[in-house]
């Protein structure tokens, strides 16, 4: 049954094509406009008399500005202000130090879990530098570089990892599940890929409201195998969402290497399939990352359409403190990336060779030592704080407690009244 004018129009077109047997021509030219809505895509069908399977297009090239020795390959992309480039470098060093110490802190049993971002700092810090502050970031979990660039402090990180009263998440999440409304950084979610359709939705909202900002979402190449990822990209493409998809292709999803994750041309190849403006960049080259994100962001706000970037990088560290990665990859593989394609070394070499920064070894050591001292002090302070009061457990989900939650809260209160001595209730703030 024909329900509306658009369908009437499409039906008439179909009838006329049937009469004239002109379906071949229809595909390229026949658009049905109703209230400016286009019904068919351009160039959906091109006919041929040769029976053959479609061939794989050429490999998408990876954009690079500096080589592994920090020498410039594309001087036209050196034009990043000194202040920003130095902030990128300093933040990358800071993130590396924080990751080193918090990884050890977990080994000492002072925090329960940690996820380092060794080897991926150019991607996450470079993105932080290139996005606008008001762009909303939907992270996966290994993107501390972005939130730190925006101003999240070591104290914020440690309060979250310990889950004390200063933790913005009120101690309800595992460590590294950072988030900050003030810094436009949505809280990390453990279930993979949930953030990606959320970012499509936020980007859709920005377009509908005529806002000049983007929703930027991170995910690993492993997370791109989730069903939600495909739905998110298709929604973004068809609804013209102002969403920037940021794929950290670090070659492993815990123990699953890329060869078992996908065939075809990486994750960027899939994005092109969804009709999204797609870039591939050397994720260990901070200059290339910065320029690619700037260009993709500009494309989104100008064209009111999504964009996608695949960052080619390598996870130098273990997946998390619950992983021991030499069980599934060799020491040689790790050390070769660490020594020949380390993003911090590469940017440092570039800054030195180009004369844009004067390095002083003794001063650099002092800077790293100061970062370490600060983290240790912040850890001590965070540990001295109380944990959130037990009754806050029931807050923030429903505006008014549901009858079963009321019952559970009362049950817990009675339980703690009766058996409180068996718990270390001193650790918790009072209700
Ligand atoms: C829905 C879901 N499935 C499985 C997991 C367990 N898991 C956590 S991280 C991870 C690997 C993800 O790899 P990738 O997306 O490539 O990101 P990377 O860790 O390499 O940065 C898996 C399988 C999960 N958290 N959620």
UniProtKB/TrEMBL annotation:
GO molecular function, one term: branched-chain 2-oxo acid dehydrogenase activity
Domain (Dehydrogenase E1 component) ranges: 91-388
Cofactor: thiamine diphosphate
SUPFAM superfamilies per UniProt: Thiamin diphosphate-binding fold (THDP-binding)
Pfam families xref list: E1_dh
UniProt GO BP: branched-chain amino acid catabolic process
Known EC number: 1.2.4.4
Enzyme class: oxidoreductase
Keywords: Oxidoreductase, Thiamine pyrophosphate
Keyword Oxidoreductase attached: yes
Catalytic activity: N(6)-[(R)-lipoyl]-L-lysyl-[protein] + 3-methyl-2-oxobutanoate + H(+) = N(6)-[(R)-S(8)-2-methylpropanoyldihydrolipoyl]-L-lysyl-[protein] + CO2
Alphabetized Gene3D superfamilies for the sequence: 3.40.50.970
Function noted in UniProt: The branched-chain alpha-keto dehydrogenase complex catalyzes the overall conversion of alpha-keto acids to acyl-CoA and CO(2). It contains multiple copies of three enzymatic components: branched-chain alpha-keto acid decarboxylase (E1), lipoamide acyltransferase (E2) and lipoamide dehydrogenase (E3).
Family stated for the protein in its record: Belongs to the BCKDHA family.
Name of the molecule in the record: 2-oxoisovalerate dehydrogenase subunit alpha
Source organism: Tetrahymena thermophila (strain SB210)
